[in-house]
Design goal:
With 282 residues, the chain is of the alpha/beta class. The protein contains eleven helices and nine strands. The chain folds into two domains: 174 residues, Rossmann fold (3-Layer(aba) Sandwich), CATH 3.40.50; 90 residues, Pantoate-beta-alanine ligase, C-terminal domain (Pantoate--beta-alanine Ligase, Chain: A,domain 2, 2-Layer Sandwich). Bound molecules: pantoate.
Length: 282
């Protein structure tokens, strides 16, 4: 397994290979890798000659210092896990200095309003941080394809917008949410859940599935009220938001239309761990 920590070294390596026609698939991560990440890596390996995985806990996308401090940093076990998939993967694990060069600040972006919905309301500046790091990583790695999980559906929509607005020569691919057997979406944060909350957390997906069924016959408002009531009765999970939105604008649906595609989104706290999930409704 080749691990790069320096941007000019990986840039040099990739540009020489690309000159020979070799294609690159890219999976950007913040480490603490799990099966959800591995499913993206497998897709990248199927569709490209080489897969690059970046492991970088990006400080500019955290709105909470404690969350940034507590974010798991497990490079050694991440590399070991990646080796179980393929030893040909290139890992880019830069320092904050290598990426930000003394100016650890987010750029300010206009994502045509996508950034103000849902996560954008509750995590101020988060998507400026995501846009900043993903743009930098795309410029360093210059991948043909990049892979992101639909668990962060809003992030995926914003990264597609970023690539389009800046004419970045990369195809941004969304991949289905990878779930544990009990339905809980894989997340690096799951490892921090205490036992009671591990048991409670699958309620999130169970409720999303029930909401999907209700959406067939009920209005978005009725479904939202029903979901809010279910969470109010759950003593382990505190709902931050439940929202039914149209998939291209991510705006909350007021009146359902058969011509539009909707998704339901949820953010909830299990103790001090914030979990998000979503489901396609039609
Ligand atoms: O989804 C993540 O892990 C991060 O937001 C990303 C895309 C790697 C940017 O830091």
């Amino acid at each position: 397994m080749t691990i790069f920590t320096n941007k000019s070294e990986i840039q040099d390596h990739i540009s020489k290979k690309k000159a020979k026609g070799i294609t690159f698939g890219f999976v950007p991560t913040m480490g603490a890798l799990h099966n959800g990440h591995l499913s993206l890596v497998e897709k990248a390996l199927q569709e490209n000659d080489v897969c690059v995985v970046s492991v970088f806990v990006n400080p500019t996308q955290f709105d909470n210092d404690q969350d940034l401090k507590k974010y798991p940093r497990t490079l050694k076990s991440d590399v070991a896990l990646l080796e179980t998939v393929s030893k040909t993967i290139l890992v880019y694990a830069p320092s904050v200095e290598d990426i930000y060069q003394g100016n650890t600040k987010a750029e300010s972006f206009n994502f045509d309003g996508l950034e103000f919905e849902m996560e954008g309301k509750f995590r101020k500046g988060h998507f400026d941080g995501v846009g900043t790091i993903v743009k930098k990583l795309f410029e360093i790695v210059t991948p043909n394809n990049a892979y992101f999980g639909e668990k962060d559906f809003q992030q995926l929509a914003i990264i597609k917008k970023l690539a389009q607005k800046y004419n970045l020569p990369v195809k941004v691919n969304g991949c289905e949410i990878f779930r544990e057997e009990n339905g809980l979406a894989y997340s690096s944060r799951n490892t921090r859940l205490k036992p009671d909350y591990i048991k409670a957390a699958p309620f999130i997906f169970k409720t999303l599935k029930a909401a999907k069924e209700k959406f067939g016959t009920k209005s978005a408002k009725q479904v939202t009220e029903w979901v809010e009531k279910q969470f109010a009765e759950n003593k382990f999970l505190e709902l931050e938001y439940f929202n039914i939105a149209e998939v291209t604008t991510l705006k909350t649906v007021k009146r359902k239309s058969k011509l539009k595609t909707y998704r339901a989104f949820v953010a909830a706290y299990a103790d001090d761990i914030r979990l998000i999930d979503n489901i396609a409704l039609n």
